[in-house]
Amino acid sequence: MHTLKRNSIPSILSLLELFPAVILLGARQVGKSTEVKQILPNAHYFDLEKDSDYTRINNDPELLFKEENGTFIFDEAQRLPKLFYAIRVEIDQHRKQNGRFLITGSSSPELLKNIAETLAGRCVIIEVNGFSWNEALERPQSKFYQLLKTKDCDSYKKLIPHIKYNELLELCLYGSYPELYLRRDNELFVDKWRESYIQTYIERDIRSLFPNLNFDTFKRFVKMSCFATGEIINYSNFSRSLDVSQPTIKNYFAILEGTFIWRNLPSYDKNLKKRVIKMPKGYLKDTGLINHFLKISSIDDLKSHPQYGHIWESFITEQVIKGIKENLIQCDFFHYRTSNHSEIDLILEGKFGIIPIEIKASSATHKKQLRTMEIFIKENNCAYGIVINNGDKIFKLSEKIIQIPAIFL
């Protein structure tokens, strides 16, 4: 078990002061169990994938709260739906006591249904992902995410770089799963870990959640999804390749997203002056898994691969979204593409307004590449836009567009 501190711990502690229960949802192996033990080290801990813990609670969950006092951690709680009803009763009997329950789950439609039906108004849900860059490298988190709330793009000029370009490439290559990243020097371990992870994900998790699924087809779909990373999702292409219906493909994507393997970015279609493509764009959250499927095993392979631009875009996008969520900044995420193929990679919309972000794998961005963003800023009355590239300095590219190299994130 690693002991690296996660960015979200202060935010989760603050939420425990406000709510009786905090629920952490995320894919397997992203570090949820380690994090909850760091947050509440003296809590009663129950791992519901452990037979003894499962049996004790399953026999009589309400009896547990009569026998034990204090705070509780329930790990992988999706395995025992009736636990949520017992937690609700316990919360309602002690409604003024906050911070008693820290619950984790590896997502399932049934889990979210149980939360909605039993703990609505009594809990808050937090998404947990793999390592952010600063967590992996044990460095302070960039102030970039707090500066997003300002309407003055000049404020970004006081940022300092916390990471080197070569370190970013290594993070992109290996991905963000904590155990794998921390043991990345062992090539055999990396390969076997990823193979085991994918097999366990499909053969155990997906099979238990969706027993009527065609698993051979779904396996092929998961492998194909890496080629759709960073692109508009074309359901018909998947449908033809896998010889299934488009509704089936949409269901497959919903499963990937619901199990926190895939992130969907809906289209930003609020611009009435343009005809926009309304289909979503998405990507596998972990670039290490993408590289595994694409047989990319080195930084040189990564930089020379035809999919490198899309992989890098997904890598940067996920880092930005992680940082925003870790800081509890209320924000919605979109992509933008018009019918004439003008596009912006990421649109942020929150109380701070609308911020368009363009992501480039190159070290320099030319004036002609800013045209779409300049039009978008004007039509949507944005305070400014951001270009994230692989340069080494922060400076304005135009009056309302600022370059922020990835090493400052």
Features:
5-stranded parallel β-sheet; Rossmann fold; 43% helix; globular; 14 strands; alpha/beta; 409 residues; 6-stranded mixed β-sheet; 2 domains
Folded structure, characterized:
The chain is an alpha/beta fold and 409 residues long. It folds into 2 domains: 9-127, 3-Layer(aba) Sandwich (Rossmann fold); 133-408, no CATH class. 43% of the residues lie in helices and 16% in strands. The protein has 18 helices and 14 strands. The chain has helices at residues 9-16, 32-39, 51-59, 61-67, 82-93, 109-118, 133-137, 144-147, 165-174, 178-182, 187-209, 215-225, 235-242, 246-258, 287-293, 299-304, 308-326, 371-379, and strands at 21-25, 44-47, 72-75, 101-105, 123-127, 231-232, 262-265, 281-284, 331-337, 343-350, 353-359, 385-388, 395-398, 401-403. The strands form 3 sheets. A 6-stranded mixed beta sheet has the order 9-10-11-12-14-13, sandwiched between helices. Strands 2-3-4-1-5 form a 5-stranded parallel beta sheet, with helices on one face. α5 links the parallel β3 and β4 (101-105). α3 packs across α4, α9 (165-174) packs across α15 (287-293) and α13 (235-242) packs across α14 (246-258). 40% of the residues are buried. The mean pLDDT is 92.
